[in-house]
Amino acid sequence: GTHGHVTAAAVPAGEPTPSIEPAAVSLVERATTRLTATLRDGTGATVPATFAWSAVDQAIATVDQTGLVTARAAGTTLVLASVNGRSAAAQVTVTQMPVASVTLTP
99 phi and psi, to 5 degrees? Predict the structure, then answer.
């Protein structure tokens, strides 16, 4: 069956490709979020896979092997999920915690 979109990357049919959801996240310092990696074959079916997670700049954000991202310092980095020699990337943007939000109510 033909679908309405064409993938520009030269990926052989049936070669599973990984993706990360969401592909871009914004966090404030010390916040956490979970990314989900999925491996799909040429038909779009999900293939069971164990991903190796890594963060390009661990001063900005770190990621554990479950895809849990922890923001460390303001900046932008990529989090990668790798499987079978292929990687998917998600962009992580970390912003500073606004000082004004630390107001204590008596």
Answer: -60, -35
- Give the tens place of pLDDT for each residue, 45-91: 999 999 999 999 999 999 999 999 999 999 999 999 999 899 999 99
- CA–CA gap between residue 98 and residue 80 (Å, rounded): 28
Record the tokens describing residue 36, joined without a space: 């989900």
Q: Which residue, 59, 65, 61, 66, is CA-closest to 79?
A: 61
Token pair listed for 69: 């991202």
For residue 52, what are the CA distances in angstroms to 35, 97, 101? 13, 29, 36
The token pair at 52 is 């190796």
Omega of the bond prior to 22 within 30 degrees of 0, cis?
Answer: yes
Residue 14 near residue 45 (C-beta atoms within 8 A)? no
The whole-angstrom separation of Cα 27 and Cα 55 is: 15
C-alpha to C-alpha distance for 57 and 94, rounded to whole angstroms: 12
> pTM of whole model > 0.85?
no
